[in-house]
């Protein structure tokens, strides 16, 4: 759908691209000692957006980007939005009968255009000046806003090659934001092994004991006031950034629902990462999988929910071979990324005893999600049924809640089964036999008998 915002953004970018093309043309002519329209590329003033309202113009003004920074940003953008602007850099050097080394750039596997490298940027801005080259190299440093805010980066060059031969890569999120005006949520894939999870439930649907709920309230307080604590009160030098919490307890006791509710309550996206799927038998792959997640999550306020945490944080009795040693490296890597993350990280385990104490000491909070008591089970049963359904007269939810020890998730499964059987009978009244059959199914799954 074409919106006014989209049109305004396209107009801003077209103006910026015309300026970029003029700078590139001037640099080539100046370097090749041809008639150039200016004596220096800096004579070509970048567009003054003034009060122009567009995502791109606001981005440039917000970061107060310099001449060089705007050129670098455009070098990262151009291959994605107007790749033909870089075609002049394919020019052949008549003396060597190949491309100009100083222009940098590489040919993509599928992309037919010129893919700019760090050398391309240095050439555009410095020409052959060594002094300018040395000064401009800092723009690729870790402390520059482009790196700190995950805007763009210089990809690592192949081993043994100059670092400026790495390609200039813009963050997918920034690319989306600067073109269509919004950030698209990543889709779960092998490169991003995490899935966004949501819930339609409310806090009133979460049935946990008072101590558990108080601890959950502590997390909510950090989500609401953590930023003010660190930066308004100046505690960022004394306290670790981010918040780390372990949820433990049997399946179906509310761990995932709590993560979703925390996101819903604070307007944050929640991404569930199943560590049993992320951990790879191939050396180095686990770190790569985890790195993709944390790199995407940086500065987005996501809540990261690591399920099946035992897969990586389980107790290790000994280090018997190279694989065990490497598994410990994977744990260390994840711990470091968790501690460096400035948002909320939740890890879930079925049993706290499965977790190594050396890891649990790193958490800011450890919350037990226990099986509900009879009175809590009754509340879950009472909230579980559809409004269109009715209960047979011989059903006593109080007796069922007292007689059958089930988690909240198991209760919902039992209700779901009984409701389906009721619909199959073309009825709205749930029978006691169907409800008990649903309970038996849950007991059987757990290896228990009614």
Automatic annotation (TrEMBL):
Keywords: ATP-binding, Nucleotide-binding
Superkingdom, natural source: Bacteria
PANTHER family per UniProt: 26S PROTEASOME REGULATORY SUBUNIT
Organism lineage: Bacteria, Pseudomonadati, Bacteroidota, Bacteroidia, Marinilabiliales
Name of the protein described by the UniProt record: ATPase AAA
GO MF term list: ATP binding; ATP hydrolysis activity
Native organism: Sunxiuqinia dokdonensis
The keyword Nucleotide-binding is annotated on this UniProt entry: yes
Ranges where the AAA+ ATPase domain occurs: 241-373
